[in-house]
């Protein structure tokens, strides 16, 4: 099957002049030229044009495109690389769409679009810690999950989080022991809270890594001043850490 230069230009959304220019610079030569001087393009040539147009859309100039195509040993590997680049671009655009949608919903609800963590993302502030402790996959999956929520769903989740923190603080003020039944029930509630977040070991049912995660989170509460402040002071953060450690050691 072949297409004339006019047919290919029309299907590709470009001009015949562009195709002739690609021919002149050696970027895309026709598969054959008829006796009447017409240029014809077979599927192999069309596949090459597809890749040229993809690279152009990614902002590459013609000399750079020519260099990429000239250095390729396997056209299939080149196509795979382009699929990966397009998927990355798609993910970036999807994140932007979610961000703008959240901003719109916030404005329609009469609240500030950038209030607290609601639109900043569930774990954006702690991206480096999440990746270093549990990997890029854990961050990306949980971050996508958070940004996929509606504004009302984010509010509900944040309220549940605030309620859990308040319950921990109340237990500390009541003089409970980290190993008391009440403190251990809070630890169980905390682990259940974590299991709702996609990408975490708790959500994936990985017992060994879940124990490691719970212990690591407990340590982070004490080591990071931001978390100590969340639980009123270092003593509060230490109580939560000890309760989580005890729960991970005896009940997970």
TrEMBL record:
It comes from the Bacteria. One of its GO terms (molecular function) is DNA binding. CDD domains: HTH_TipAL-Mta. Residues 69-103 form a coiled coil. The keyword Membrane does not apply. The keyword Transcription applies. Residues 1-71 form the HTH merR-type domain. Keywords: Coiled coil, DNA-binding, Repressor, Transcription, Transcription regulation. This is MerR family transcriptional regulator. It comes from Streptosporangium carneum.
């Amino acid at each position: 099957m072949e297409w004339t230069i006019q047919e290919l230009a029309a299907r590709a959304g470009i001009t015949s002049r562009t195709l002739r220019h690609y021919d002149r610079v050696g970027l895309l030569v026709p598969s054959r030229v008829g006796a009447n001087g017409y240029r014809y393009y077979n599927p192999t040539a069309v596949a090459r044009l597809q890749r040229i147009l993809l690279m152009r859309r990614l902002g590459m100039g013609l000399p750079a495109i020519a260099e990429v195509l000239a250095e390729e040993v396997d056209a299939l590997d080149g196509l795979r690389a382009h699929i990966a680049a397009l998927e990355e671009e798609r993910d970036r655009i999807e994140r932007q769409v979610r961000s703008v949608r959240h901003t719109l919903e916030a404005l329609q609800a009469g609240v500030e679009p950038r209030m607290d963590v609601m639109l900043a993302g569930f774990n954006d502030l702690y991206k480096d810690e999440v990746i270093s402790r549990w990997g890029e996959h854990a961050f990306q999956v949980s971050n996508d999950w958070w940004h996929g929520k509606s504004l009302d769903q984010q509010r509900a989740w944040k309220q549940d989080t605030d309620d859990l923190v308040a319950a921990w603080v109340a237990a500390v003020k009541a003089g409970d022991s980290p190993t008391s039944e009440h403190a251990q029930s809070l630890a169980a509630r905390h682990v259940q809270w974590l299991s709702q977040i996609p990408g975490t070991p708790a959500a994936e049912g990985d017992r060994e890594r879940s124990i490691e995660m719970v212990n690591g989170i407990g340590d982070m509460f004490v080591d990071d001043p931001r978390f100590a402040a969340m639980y009123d002071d270092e003593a509060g953060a230490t109580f939560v850490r000890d309760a989580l450690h005890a729960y991970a050691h005896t009940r997970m």
